[in-house]
Amino acid sequence: MPDQTAAPRPTLEAVAERAGVSRATVSRVVNGGSGVREALVEKVRRAVDELGYVPNQAARTLVTRRTGAVAVIVAEPETKVFTNPFFAEQLLGISRELTAHDLQLVLLLVEGNADYDRVGRYLAGGHVDGALLFSLHDEDPLPAITRRIGIPTVFGGRPGWRDAEGDRSILYVDTDNRGGAREAVRHLLSLGRSRIATITGPMDQTASADRLDGFHDLLMDADPQLVVEGDFTEAGGARAMAVLLDRVPDLDAVFVASDLMASGALRLLRERGRRVPQDVAVVGFDDVTSVAELTDPPLTTVRQEIAEMGRLMVRLLLRDLDRRAKGDGPGRPLTSLVIPTRLIRRATA
Length: 349
Description:
By secondary structure, the chain is an alpha/beta fold. The protein has helices at residues 12-19, 23-30, 38-51, 57-64, 78-81, 85-100, 113-124, 142-149, 177-190, 206-218, 234-247, 259-271, 289-292, 306-326; strands at residues 69-74, 104-109, 130-134, 153-156, 171-175, 196-200, 227-229, 253-256, 281-286, 300-303, 337-339, 342-344.
């Protein structure tokens, strides 16, 4: 049975009486409103702490028109999300930034076509203030769904769908994938390697296309046999490495578009009796430390700030929400962000 002697929850009126201010003043302070003198704000906060007042979320939503929650939508099956450390790092950055702003994370995964209807209904239901989308593939319906609903959205990665180029209303946070790939290939060339291959990510994702473009920026005449598509998994990296060795047995270096694939490529090279880096130098991409520092030998890779990308996605979304709340017009657009990369040298190249 419930405890009949439990004290009732403190009310706004109780906080107002303790602080010596009006109920309206307390409401403005608690709900983040402006126009209250700092001295009164401090009185209200002290009274809130003393009484243990907790705002009623439903009432707060009516006042602020905010739910206090943000949807994080990953366009990948759950088996991939929960086994790839890249997603763990990005979600960690998002979660920490949302927590710092007292916001809740609602994780939505897309496993199949039926999930798009489910996600669309949820977003249209007003359960969240905005959405963060990442790991999108070409022709993914999620961007059209968020546009139709009109929910504020920030994308993880440069959008690649038609009509996205030059659209200043689309906000995203990305890594300099092309520049990072150039840096990886430049390093391999500086080591005197001449038969440099690459294992790409899925070519229906802009990050993969940009990294391949960076590879070709320095190796414009590369033999097409030196390019094999992977899938951002460890097993996919091993399969792609096997194809490369069968095609080009004398290759002496490989740029791999993710650390997880690079770990698979290293395993396959070891099974085939190739020494790293003496016979084949390897450079990855990501610098996921739980992978790159534990490969044998430790992986030289291009570092992208994965958790920082997550944090910046949240900050950009919150700036957009604040701008909309203040009624700022289209004359003050926000700017998408592209984060630089850097080469982390370890033992594979």
